[in-house]
Amino acid sequence: MRLIQELPEPCRIESEWMILERKVSVDGRDVVIVQNVDLRKPFITRAEFKSASFRKLQEDSKRCLYRQGLLLEPLNGALSTSSQ
After folding, report:
1. pLDDT tens, residue by residue, 5-54
2. Given Cys at both, which of 20, 30, 53, 69 links 13, Cβ 3.0 to 4.6 Å?
3. Whether the Cβ atoms of residue 13 and residue 61 lie closer than 8 Å to each other
């Protein structure tokens, strides 16, 4: 597959609850997507869930991950179809 768009910017989000990273790269003929989540706390309290800092984490995470599709095409330029 070949990436047919600009590479998305990598993102990194750090909070007291987690570190989230996403990076897309091209390595030869491969499109490589690396996503890591490192949890810093095993749970979120009700008070934390309602906090402004947790809302910011949610917004930042959505901006990093939500609707971050990639436009790809086969290396030969044609999609394979199956006949029935």
Report:
1. 777 789 999 999 999 999 988 888 787 889 999 999 999 999 999 999 99
2. 20
3. yes
- DSSP letters along the chain, please? -EE-SPPPPPEEEE-SSEEEEEEEEEETTEEEEEEEEEESSS---HHHHTSHHHHHHHHHHHHHHTT----EE-TTS-------
Q: Could you read off the pLDDT of 55-78 as tens digits, one per residue? A: 999 999 998 887 666 767 777 755
Where do we find the tokens 């599709």? Answer: 69
CA distance 21 to 69: 16
